[in-house]
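U., I forgot to send this yesterday:
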Amino acid sequence: MKLARRTGIALAVAGSALTLAARAPGAFSPGYTYRLKISGHVTEPNGKTKDFVVMSGKAMVNANGGRLDIEEASKERGAMTEKGGYILYDPTAMMIVSPKDKQVLRFGVDDMEKSMSALAANVPGMRINISDVAVNFEKLGGGEPMLGMSTTRYRITQDYRIAMKVAFMNRNTTEHIVQEYWVADAKKGFANPFARMGGLRPVGGGAFAELIAKTTEASSRMGKGIPLKTVSTTTSTNDKGEATTNVSTMEVTDLQSGNVDDALLKAPADYKVVDLGEQTRAMAKQLEDAKATQAAQAAQSGQAEAAVPDSTPSMKAAAAEAAKEAAKQKTGDKIKKGLGGLLRRP
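Result:
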């Protein structure tokens, strides 16, 4: 009996060892874990101030991708997810994973930027004009050591005027944005992919073209190092001279090296996947088609295209249909609340 029992235990141990040995190749990759926090401080024109946390959590990254498990989040302040969820990253896409809903909101980074641009260009009643664009890049020299690594400080300053009209709202402000970076040398398997979440911008021309082109050129001059800390100060001054200042800080802390389980960097196979880029393209296409139809009708009736408002029934119907389709997919709220965070700077 004792012999049989010992033999059974030995076989069980051997079987476990064989299972682990079979799983080991490719299952883990050298990488890093760290804590990531995005916090903000706002000063209103009346002098009142408020501090808040946009999002914080624990990140794990390696050469194959990254994951941020959310421990604190405020959608009102621009967070794209909620406590208990997590964000996955690979070189081509980001995914917002909700274990509660068993759903994955996926967007290809470049594709999403282009889709957002197309959507913004065709939203009924929206007019955007950006002028007086100036972008300045500075290399400030060595910064203080962080996480045992030396850093280099950079500063990118953006100045421009923005005139925006959406439905019955007019906004005319002067924007002054100072972004400071503490950048460490690149390390294999170490990345702060989540820094890009705050850097997405509509692309592909239009009102933003000059600003984006100049900012992209300035950012490229920082090289391929890893941002360990960024501080962005945005001062918006309206036509009445009233200024609102927002300071946003993203910082990496508690960095540790070690193997990272590649399986944790992938979304569960049984979760429903919703492609936000695809849905945004569909909404933009509906609005674009309605706009083209409206222009053709105006031309046939002898009216100048510029004289036809884009809030006609056909445009309203297209917008309503697009919203209805998003609601069908149960992503309307996710898009409205989540995409706001994409446009915030880290």
